[in-house]
């Protein structure tokens, strides 16, 4: 038997068990991953996913943030993918040294590609070996700390020998068969190596067998070691990239993945006792979590930038994934995941791990699922979060401040002569407004945040921007609750905020529902998470809008001399920069202020966190160095005299970390100083005007759909507290309201009296109750509704006195049959204005409306409760209506319920209240009744 044939047979026989071991490992990995819980939507848009996957794999965009390492890895990857064709050619060459692939073997292009792949593999792997050796794996500062060093070295040696084997086989063939054509380009290196080798066909077969044996060793190693991510990522990385959450190729940043159990998304409405919120055991893990853990290459890029790991915390995103992988392969699937609580609660959700990962592992989503189980299933979480959850649930802000305090900064601004239009008081609809300024909790309650809010309002006023705020109509977006794992509380807060915002933007197209905010956490939630629940808005950070105002010439910084060009540095907020890729607007604004911007070593996508994200703002930091102090030292190392920020949380954290060594201010405050004169006076404001022409649509003449009927993924927009609706019916003629009856407003509000319609005799508005404005102008909690033109409004307790009507002005009656005295005026169809808190809307008999959970205890009939400060009760044109008169019920309403605080008890049925002396109330024609809408749950503000 020829020697070459014997060598070929050895290669074949050794290959059989090697391939068997490898295929067995593949089956085990597949079964392991496929046993995970299903995730909906991960296979949608396969064409887009395939294209994005190929672009990322062959473009190596994520790897190139370390250019030399990325280029070396790209060469090794190509050598593995396309070099496999050359490796299989070794079976032919071991039997027939002069042979090779038919049609390809003698093709100069194929030989050139073979040459380049072999050289690239050798050069790339040698460089990567050098990087690993230089960084080491024993020091905590090394990104390879905790990685499997032995596994990595073995794989690297195999790859190196494979690359050398490709060159050796080709060079030996050229030396043994000189009659073959040697191409000067296709064989540019191997022909020189061939000159050093003897002419021996057996040597060709030996080299081919060595190449095959190295490949077999790789197959056996991979098949036997399922936890060696450094080997398995060569096969699994394609799937983690293909099945990532966003088919358009975006990193899994911004919004969190929805809470899923047994393949369905869990909402407040749909969760049952059988569902498991989050992941606490291996049996609860999704297949994507198991796939991510199996794919982790242990490259340590995530660990290198993790703020928790770099400040001595036990959390490393890399080690978290390897712990999950080891537990999933080595433990019983019913056992709980062995994740230490200090690891779980050290995460700031900064997104550095996700952004740096070359195989698109979704670390933050996995941390969120682990936290959801710990909070919702086990009720185990840091004690500080208990207070935060309670405050969010009862006060709608994480600090537990009274919601009325949200407007205290407005009162201060107005005392200083600064105009701050409030939606529901100064602005009744969005027809003449372009931007809604979402102030946020920190912007309303934190002292530094209030200064930023005030500066933004001054800049908007100076630029002539048409905007409005909600004042006490705001509530927390729910970001701290969701990031801390309390998904149920987040959905309740999101439902409340979306109901408010959709009411504000009624009649406004989605692309012009523009919100500006100074808080990147609010921005991220409003823009990336609310669309899943039916809230679709165009959200801008305040630096984006201010940057445009400077470009448009509405804000003009005053030129500064060189003596005022002091050095500053800018800290990138994680949820503004890395999560939402807003890097340039703040820097461009700082550039026009005339200050000298000095960048820190770690900025933009690689910026270091301040330590406030992931609800860490509300937890004590007891392990290692404080993250905010670590980041502040990086800022001060630039020699900056002042630190600029674009986030209220960052402002607090950096201020605490600076310890008075340098002031920390928002970019808006620096811009405000730049446009002011030497005495601090702002320039004369521009005439208010739109930046873009508005587009508005007429409101439909039918009730707005309930929250459950609106858009949103999986019906997640449905209200969990809304009672069932019933068909509307005609009100009883002359029907009076039972004593103490009050009905909370429906989503979209109760139907207002049309403009120009007068209040019939005997129908009065109780003191403290507000009459809804015209259709399309919803009134928010705590906001007073301005009176209609020509109407007089009786002062509510604690409210302001109304302006008397002009002499001789009376609301003319509409054409048609007059309304008999004492009869009820039905509401206008299509109305959608909600009634402010403290306003009682009398119900119609039919349905009992239970109080919503968390609502304040209603006041018994007859007890007087003063209304919220600043509330007024306007009524339709036609003059003032004396207190105590009954307001007719809406058809299809609900059964009597106790009145809300601040409302007066209506008279008993059948009692008629005469009109006030001197007021003439002309009759008005009846209008068709409007079908009822379910009332939302009132939020306690006490």
Automatic annotation (TrEMBL):
<keyword id="KW-0472">Membrane</keyword>
<feature type="compositionally biased region" description="Pro residues">
    <location>
        <begin position="815"/>
        <end position="942"/>
    </location>
</feature>
<dbReference type="GO" id="GO:0016491">
    <property type="term" value="F:oxidoreductase activity"/>
</dbReference>
<feature type="transmembrane region" description="Helical">
    <location>
        <begin position="154"/>
        <end position="177"/>
    </location>
</feature>
<protein>
    <submittedName>
        <fullName>4Fe-4S dicluster domain-containing protein</fullName>
    </submittedName>
</protein>
<feature type="compositionally biased region" description="Basic and acidic residues">
    <location>
        <begin position="684"/>
        <end position="700"/>
    </location>
</feature>
<dbReference type="GO" id="GO:0005886">
    <property type="term" value="C:plasma membrane"/>
</dbReference>
<keyword id="KW-0560">Oxidoreductase</keyword>
<dbReference type="InterPro" id="IPR004017">
    <property type="entry name" value="Cys_rich_dom"/>
</dbReference>
<feature type="transmembrane region" description="Helical">
    <location>
        <begin position="189"/>
        <end position="210"/>
    </location>
</feature>
<feature type="transmembrane region" description="Helical">
    <location>
        <begin position="217"/>
        <end position="243"/>
    </location>
</feature>
<feature type="compositionally biased region" description="Low complexity">
    <location>
        <begin position="759"/>
        <end position="768"/>
    </location>
</feature>
<dbReference type="InterPro" id="IPR017896">
    <property type="entry name" value="4Fe4S_Fe-S-bd"/>
</dbReference>
<keyword id="KW-0479">Metal-binding</keyword>
<dbReference type="InterPro" id="IPR051460">
    <property type="entry name" value="HdrC_iron-sulfur_subunit"/>
</dbReference>
<feature type="domain" description="4Fe-4S ferredoxin-type">
    <location>
        <begin position="287"/>
        <end position="317"/>
    </location>
</feature>
<feature type="domain" description="4Fe-4S ferredoxin-type">
    <location>
        <begin position="335"/>
        <end position="367"/>
    </location>
</feature>
<dbReference type="GO" id="GO:0046872">
    <property type="term" value="F:metal ion binding"/>
</dbReference>
<feature type="compositionally biased region" description="Pro residues">
    <location>
        <begin position="769"/>
        <end position="807"/>
    </location>
</feature>
<keyword id="KW-0408">Iron</keyword>
<keyword id="KW-1133">Transmembrane helix</keyword>
<dbReference type="InterPro" id="IPR009051">
    <property type="entry name" value="Helical_ferredxn"/>
</dbReference>
<dbReference type="Pfam" id="PF02754">
    <property type="entry name" value="CCG"/>
</dbReference>
<dbReference type="Pfam" id="PF13187">
    <property type="entry name" value="Fer4_9"/>
</dbReference>
<feature type="compositionally biased region" description="Low complexity">
    <location>
        <begin position="720"/>
        <end position="740"/>
    </location>
</feature>
<dbReference type="InterPro" id="IPR017900">
    <property type="entry name" value="4Fe4S_Fe_S_CS"/>
</dbReference>
<feature type="transmembrane region" description="Helical">
    <location>
        <begin position="68"/>
        <end position="88"/>
    </location>
</feature>
<keyword id="KW-0812">Transmembrane</keyword>
<keyword id="KW-0411">Iron-sulfur</keyword>
<feature type="transmembrane region" description="Helical">
    <location>
        <begin position="6"/>
        <end position="27"/>
    </location>
</feature>
<feature type="region of interest" description="Disordered">
    <location>
        <begin position="678"/>
        <end position="942"/>
    </location>
</feature>
<feature type="compositionally biased region" description="Pro residues">
    <location>
        <begin position="741"/>
        <end position="758"/>
    </location>
</feature>
<keyword id="KW-0004">4Fe-4S</keyword>
<dbReference type="GO" id="GO:0051539">
    <property type="term" value="F:4 iron, 4 sulfur cluster binding"/>
</dbReference>
<feature type="transmembrane region" description="Helical">
    <location>
        <begin position="108"/>
        <end position="133"/>
    </location>
</feature>
